[in-house]
Amino acid sequence: MIYIGADHRGFKLKESIKKFLSDNDYIFEDVGAFQLDPADDYPGFAKKVAERIIDRKDRGIIICGSGVGVDDVANKFSGVRSGLAINEDQIKAARNDDDINVLSLASDYISEDQAIKIVGIFLETEFSGEERHSRRIKEINKIENNNG
């Protein structure tokens, strides 16, 4: 399952990504915003996505103006490894090496075409499972669980 959410600054991009997901037969749930509201705030939408990431196969996509705000919120949740997209190669490495399960996008700094390409790579790239990458994720989990 893919969960997607965005504030007012990411609303238009979210709608474009939803079309891409639908056109490519991905199963997804939009957690909001459901209408353009210039007074809404990104933390609530990032929280809704992050709370739903409970299975290794679940993925999330969150969008705000800078991408930093939603990324910061999502990474507060246990089991969430959110990465802020810079470019296609970086997201491929983030999935392959770091097994990120939430993609944060900066609607103010990325084109719709770039975002769609990045989303496709995020969804199609599998975690390598290499020992060194798995070891690092275990270290992160220890820190997250206050054991490290």
Count of DSSP E strands? 5
- Tell me, what is the CATH class? Alpha Beta
| Strand ordering within the main sheet | 2-1-3-5-4
Integer tally of domains? 1
CATH superfamily: Sugar-phosphate isomerase, RpiB/LacA/LacB
> What is the H/E order?
EHEHEHEHEHH
Give the quaternary arrangement of the chains: single chain
| Radius of gyration of CA atoms, rounded to a whole number | 14 Å
Structural class: alpha/beta
Question: Total helix count?
Answer: 6
General shape: globular
Q: Show unreliable segments.
A: none
Proper CATH architecture: 3-Layer(aba) Sandwich
Q: Could you describe the largest sheet, including whether it forms a barrel?
A: 5 strands, parallel
CATH topology category name: Ribose 5-phosphate Isomerase B, Chain: A
What's the helical proportion of residues? 40-55%
Instruction: State the distance separating the first and last CA atoms.
Output: 31 Å
What does this structure look like?
The protein has 6 helices and 5 strands; from the N terminus they run E-H-E-H-E-H-E-H-E-H-H. The protein has helices at 11-23, 42-51, 68-74, 88-98, 112-124, 131-144, and strands at 2-6, 28-30, 59-64, 82-84, 102-106. With 148 residues, it is an alpha/beta fold. Strands 2-1-3-5-4 form a 5-stranded parallel beta sheet, with helices on both faces. The mean pLDDT is 96.
